[in-house]
Design brief:
Blueprint (H helix, E strand, L loop, with lengths): L11 E5 L24 H14 L7 E3 L8 E4 L13 E4 L5 E6 L3 E7 L4 E7 L1 H6 L1 H11 L8 E4 L9 E2 L5 H6 L7 E3 L6 E3 L1 H11 L4 E4 L14 H7 L7 E7 L2
Parallel strand pairs: 2-5, 3-4, 8-12
Antiparallel strand pairs: 1-13, 4-7, 5-13, 6-7, 6-8, 9-11, 10-11
Length: about 250
């Protein structure tokens, strides 16, 4: 479990979990936390229990969404069963003891907290969600609930790194339409008419553009570090048949 100092508050518990630890059927190799991955359901449930135990919570206090690469934010007041998951990519809560969980396998998990207001949030920021505004929408939802922009702390978790994320010629267009300054997140790839994209750098820039100043990041390249992280891109490159999902979670301490 990786933690960042920006979110270290007595009232806040958080963790960006790696693939290390946990249990597995041998295909997914350890700490897969996605119930929709095709992994053994009982083993995934045990991994999620292990993660919640690290945060000092019962297993049934973890909530995750059906992530759709959008910008919708849901307010969480109670935990729900896996089959009741809303279709959304961000969650916010003022309820103590509920862990907001984001599942990723290259996309960027972003955790947020205003400890004084008693508000935490979590967002799934793949490139689509990030350029569509999921980070901004999450912060605005927190502010509408009583958080202060000056107090909000945020951290970007492990995701695909700028040395691993090759994209096609058409990819930069929506980013450049948003701002010409976004050209700085692209550099030429070895293949002609391809680029390398800096997703974690872009996510941090979106946080900074909202006026948030307490911004942290775990670092780590999910595609380039197979011993530590799951990666959909790596599966595609190597021909693997399965990939798991990393869990990132935050809660208000009960």
């Amino acid at each position: 479990m990786i933690r960042v100092p920006q979110l270290d508050e007595p009232a806040i518990r958080h963790g960006f979990f790696t693939r290390e630890g946990g249990v597995s059927d041998g295909i997914f190799a350890s700490m897969n936390c996605s119930l929709g991955s095709g992994d053994d359901v009982a083993k995934v449930a045990e991994n999620r229990r292990i993660a919640m135990a690290a945060l000092g919570l019962p297993a049934d206090r973890l909530v995750t969404c059906h992530q759709v690469h959008g910008a919708d934010v849901v307010t969480v007041e109670r935990s729900w069963a896996h089959g009741e998951r809303p279709r959304a990519d961000a969650m916010m809560t003022q309820t103590e003891g509920i862990a907001l969980g984001i599942l990723t396998a290259d996309c960027a998990p972003v955790l947020f907290a205003d400890a004084k207001a008693g508000i935490v949030a979590a967002a799934h920021a793949g490139w689509r969600g990030a350029v569509t505004g999921v980070i901004e929408a999450t912060i605005e939802a927190m502010i509408a609930a009583g958080a202060s922009r000056a107090r909000i702390a945020a951290a970007v978790g492990p995701c695909i790194g700028k040395d691993s994320y090759e994209v096609g010629a058409e990819f930069p267009a929506p980013f450049l339409a948003q701002s010409p300054d976004n050209a700085g997140f692209f550099r030429p790839a070895p293949r002609e008419r391809h680029y390398m994209f800096d997703l974690p750098g872009y996510a941090r820039s979106r946080l900074a553009a909202t006026g948030i100043t307490r911004i942290g990041a775990t670092g780590g390249d999910t595609c380039g570090e197979p011993a530590r992280f799951f990666s959909y891109r790596r599966m595609c490159l190597t021909g693997e048949k399965h990939f798991g999902h990393l869990l990132s979670a935050i809660c208000l301490a009960p």
